[in-house]
Amino acid sequence: MNKKIIDAAAITLLGLIFMIFGIYLNAKDSNYRRDWKTFRLSAETAEGVISRIEVKFSLQKHKGYKSIAFAEYTDDNGVTHETQLEYYRSDMDEGDTVVIYYDKDHPEKTMSDPAVALSGKDTGEMMLLTTGGIITAIGVLPVILRIREK
User: Fold this and answer.
1) Which of 60, 76, 106, 135 has the fewest CB atoms within 10 Å of its CB?
2) What predicted TM-score, i.e. pTM, was given to this entire model?
3) In what order do the strands lie in the sheet with 43-58?
C-alpha cells in the first residue's frame, strides 16, 4: 500500500478520535444538564461553606493531581450535611461560601448548577471537535486527490 495513503489514514483516524471524544464529552454534559433541569424543580438551596479541599494523586484516571472540594450546609430542618462539590476552581479556599442545591426529601443528595459545574468545559469540547474536524479533513484530502487522479 502507498505510504502516503497509510499516513493519510493515520491522520484521519487521529482526527476522528478527537471528534468522537469531543462528542462523548458533549453528550455527557448534556445528560448532566438534563438531569439538572429535573432536579432543580424540587431542589432547595442553602448557603454552603467549603469545609475542606483534598488533593489526590492518581496515575490512572486523572494522571496527576486532582483537587476535590467539600462543603457543609444546613437543610431546612436544621441538620448539617457535608457534600462533595462537583467542581473545583483554583481560587476556592476553605471558608468560602457556595450555593448548594439539595433534594428536600433526601437532603444528602445534591447537584451543582451546570453553569458553575461545567464552566469552561464547553470551550474544550469545541476545541476537540474543531481540531478533530480539521485533522480529519487534512487526512482525507490526499485520499480524495489520489482518487481523482485515477
Assistant:
1) 60
2) 0.59
3) 80-84, 64-74, 43-58, 97-103, 110-111
Q: What are the backbone angles phi and psi of residue 94, rounded to the nearest 5°? A: -60, 135
CA distance 34 to 117: 14
The separation between CA 40 and the C-alpha centre of its own chain, rounded to angstroms, equals 20
Report H helices in 43-120. Answer: 114-117
Domain that holds residue 114: 3-149
In the predicted structure, residue 72 carries a pLDDT above the cut 80? yes
Q: Which helix (H) or strand (E) holds 19?
A: helix 3-42
Are β-strands 64-74 and 43-58 bridged in parallel, bridged antiparallel, or unpaired? antiparallel
State the cell numbers at 102.
439539595
Amino acid code (one letter) for 24: Y
